Amino acid sequence: MNDPLTPPPSSPPQLRTPQQQLAPFNHRMKNDPGETGVGMSRAVAWWHTLLRANAVLNVALWSLAAAAVRHQQTSIAIDSDAAYLQLLLSAVYVGGCAYRSFLPVIDIPRIVLVDSRLSSVLVGRSVATVAELCFAAQWALILHRAAVLVGSPFVLAEICSWYAVLTTGQRAHAAENSLWGVAAALAVIGLLVIEPHRVAALYPVTIAGGAAYVAFIFIYDVPMYWSRWRVDQTNGHRYLSIVDGLVDVRRRWTVSYYWEDWKNEVPWMSLYFTFGVWSSIWLVYASLAFGRSH
């Protein structure tokens, strides 16, 4: 889930180098009317501070979940293997999201907040892929244990994400998010056909959260990426080959503190690094509750 529109070209797209394509971003960094003393937009600075503070909070919340797993393992008989597996998968997701909160990246235009090789799109997208697959595994594990057989197209979604990042094609991001939305919708439908008492630990929060997530994906995310692709098509955007994209994501990034560059990323990133991470931690507690009921 990434990336704003490619900046509109001031010269024919076929003649513009990657550095020329990013020139509008570099220029706007120096001319934001809401700059702080170090050239960073106040809104971006506050948002980044909140992201980092939330990442620390998330680690603390995960630590409490780990303590709960250890406590319940010693006090009552539960399926400790499943609980510890959930805890491990959650740790990867929480850690990956914390990394991305400290080093935010907008993948397609290669925009970052921290000028470091650790902020490169190659590193950031790799961290995101591992974390998201672990999060998907958490849901697959808990849904399987609840006897919900949902074909989850998570791997295909990650392939679409990488294709979008490497080729700079926004349409693939629309496909990626559509797949995540479809998987979530199937999970919600699966829970709806199960009697609530069979999944008492999961039912209310999962139904409400899943429905809200599906609505956000198909009302906000997918139309946003589709409209960006249409604008790129109109502007004659030149897409990269996969090989060229691999070189580009490793070598190129541009620091931007301009609110205009980040404003479309703030809603989904903020929700992703808060409610997304909290749902991962909640799955640890749900696994404990499910183990007690069996």
Walkthrough of the structure:
The chain has 294 residues and is mainly α. It has one domain (37-293). The protein has helices spanning 18-21, 23-29, 42-75, 80-102, 121-145, 154-167, 170-192, 203-234, 242-251, 259-262, 266-293; strands at 105-106, 111-112, 254-255. A three-stranded mixed sheet has the order 1-2-3, covered by helices on one side. Strand 1 (105-106) and strand 2 (111-112) form a beta hairpin. The protein is globular and about 60 Å long. The two termini are 37 Å apart. Residues 3-38 have low confidence and may be disordered.
Note the main attributes of this structure:
three-stranded mixed beta sheet; 294 residues; 69% helix; 11 helices; 3 strands; mainly alpha; 2% strand; disordered N terminus
Helix content: 55-70%
Q: Termini distance?
A: 37 Å
Helix-strand string: HHHHEEHHHHHEHH
Secondary structure tally, helices: 11
Q: Give the quaternary arrangement of the chains.
A: single chain
How do the strands of the widest beta sheet line up side by side? 1-2-3
Number of strands: 3
Nearest-integer average pLDDT:
82
Strand content: under 5%
Name the structural class: mainly alpha
Instruction: Report the major sheet.
Output: 3 strands, mixed
Q: Which descriptor suits the 3D outline? A: globular
What is the gyration radius calculated from CA atoms?
Answer: 21 Å
Short recap of the structure:
This protein has 294 residues and is mainly alpha-helical.
Which SSEs are present, and which pair or pack?
Elements: H1 18-21, H2 23-29, H3 42-75, H4 80-102, E1 105-106, E2 111-112, H5 121-145, H6 154-167, H7 170-192, H8 203-234, H9 242-251, E3 254-255, H10 259-262, H11 266-293
Parallel strand pairs: 2-3
Antiparallel strand pairs: 1-2
